[in-house]
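Much of what follows relies on a compact textual record of a protein's fold. A record is reproduced here so that you can trace the correspondence yourselves:
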Amino acid sequence: MTSKRTQDELDHTDKRKKKKKNCVELAKLCPDVEDESVKRAMKEAWGCGTHWSQGNVELDCDPFPHCIIKNFLSGQTFAENLQRELLELNFHEKSNDLYKFKQSDDLKKRKEPHIAGLRAALFGPFRSWLGDVLGVELENTVDISCARYEHTDVLLCHDDELEGRRAAFILYLVPPWESSDGGTLDLYATDSNFQPQSIVKSLVPSWNTLVLFEVSPVSFHQVREVLSQDKCRLSVSGWFHGSSLERPPRYKEPSLPRTPHLPRDETVLLEWVNPVYLDISYQEKIQEEFEDSSEIQLKDFLREEKFKEVGEALQQAQILWTKRGPPNKRCFEAASLDTLPECVTDCWELFNSEAFFLLLSNFTGLRLHYLCPADDDEDEEEAKQKAEGEAAGSSTESSAAGASTEKELSTPVCCGSIRRWSHGGYTLLHDGEAEKAEYALDLLLPFGCTGWQSEFGGFTCYVANEEDEELLTVYPEDNSLALVYRDKETLKFVKHINHKS
């Protein structure tokens, strides 16, 4: 005789299955971590800043103290199941000036058995162990997420410093990995101003290996761009919170020098600029469009023969290119102006000339020259304008000249540089830039960008200060002069150029 199960019995069975599915799988840590003698030796070595290793645990203090624990999770099965659960999560594309990768939701409340088990182990016994090693009381705050780095993903130079963060950790769950795959954790040495200088150590991700370091004014690091097209750099990372280490006053970079315009008349415009842009009626149309959108791109700006001549000259070996940093703010090469070929110098002087300032005024309606009338309702602050020029291009193709202008009282001044862009080049938003933000007219004239695609990076993004809102993106295009007006709440950066370029 077959009996029918009641609905209450079925519901009870389902609840038991669900409870079993979500029960926590206890994570057993590396035996070396649970060894009291290892903990005591680690604490002493960390306090003295000396190298130390035993079994699966290693402490290296160059360029700053960091600990590497191999086989962090005991038992291959737990790590494999953890990896499986993580890969089944929803990941979100994260991209800004500093990084590009995919990140999971916060793992703080995830109920998957192995994720919950790892979280319990990290923020339970391991936090207690780490607090004893560092000699500090770590808080109960749980700060943990999962990241997937795939082809061309990157996390650029930063120090992790944020109020409350005391130690950072990364647990790798990766396939067999080589340094040629990219994705290494690069550690930077710093100078006397606590600014990062050069990479002195690169850690290759390794299965079931945990890396941790104390967050400090010198803990600058990056995740190098992933070059492998078929491997996934999967990691669980986060921070242990506690009292922050003392931070020295932030180093303030000197401002770029600004110089008055050069006394050049309109003949320099006739020699260099596409005649269509010298037509008064066309200038009025440009101004009308610019006033509507605060930006415009003027295609085929230079005469074709001049653009070609400068582009070829920028390839000459006589130009001295200097790498500009520090890497937590920028990475590109700038040309020494006194080493430029003659035609490039002439082009540079065009953008710094009085005649060009007046032309910019006609294009934009901004008071960049004393001959330009001021609007009756013009705000006093908006009467102070700056135009900043940059160079664009890759080191294997070419670079471009740019220029700048500022109206302060009745004396325009300018600043700018000729820049060479190549794989790995970028600029980052930083506190110093936000403090110096001003009303500005930016100029950008790229060379050597034929065939450039947006997926390469290298484009200029304008964003609202302290917000994720992207206001404008300017893509490099040969002989296309970009003019962008920005206010004090608008910042810009050049997106990291990946190896596809």
About this structure: The longest strand covers residues 233-241. The longest helix spans residues 113-134. Confidence is low (pLDDT under 50) at residues 1-5, 12-20, 376-409. The chain has two domains: 31-241, 259-368+413-495.
